[in-house]
Amino acid sequence: MKRTVADLAKALLNATLILLALCLFLGWKLMAAAAAVTAQAEQIASRVAPLHTAATGLREDLASLRAALQDGQGQHGQRQDGAGLDGADTASAARLGRIEERLDQLQTNLAGVRQLPLQSAEQAGRAGAAELAGRIIRAVPLLQDGSACPPPPGQPGS
């Protein structure tokens, strides 16, 4: 009887240690995968940063161009005795407006791209954690009913 209880205690301890090792291994793999996703996200973000800087520079250039165009229109309008803007100036102003709209869309898209790696890393972490929890949950009933480990030779049920 003592030997059976001691063998059961050893088996319980062994199963617990195996389950703990499995959990640690899967957690380690999860953390490695999350680190890889984070590294890729940082690479993507570093590639987007120069685009954002360039878009900001373009916006400043467009603002200075618009100011110069408006100054030219003001001087041109005075020269024509209040006749107003001619067709070329109006077309230039309209083109600048369209370019600014496209630049606004570009900056909006860049902001979305910068957020995408963070969202992806968060989603990958949640999916990995859910997979790890699912594996542990599936393993526990097998350990409880003894079907995870076959009985040793010579025991009933082998």
From TrEMBL:
Domain of life: Bacteria
Protein name, UniProt field: Membrane-bound metallopeptidase
